[in-house]
User: What shape does this take?
Amino acid sequence: SSPTLAQTAKSVHMSPFHFHRLFTRMIGISPKHYLQHKQLQVAKWLLRRHRMPIGTIAANTGFASHGHFTSTFHRIVGVSPSEYREQY
Assistant: This one.
C-alpha cells in the first residue's frame, strides 16, 4: 500500500498542507497524480512484459479494485489495459 500524504509529510518534517503545496510547486503535479503516474508506469510495463491477469496487475500496482484500475488506466492512457496489452 502507498503511504498517505500525512505519513509522507511527517517523514520529511512538514505539515501535509505545506508538503502538498511544495511538492506540487516543485514537481508540477500533485503527490496523488505523481503516485498515480508511477503506478500506471509500472502497470504498463507489466502489461507489456507479463501475461498475468489484469486484476493481478491492478492489485500489484496498488489499485483498490480491477474496476478502479481499468477506469483510471483508460482515462489517463486513452485505451483499456486489454487494448494496451494487444498493442504492445
Remarks:
- The two ends are 28 Å apart (CA to CA).
- The chain has a mean pLDDT of 96.
- The chain has six helices and no strands.
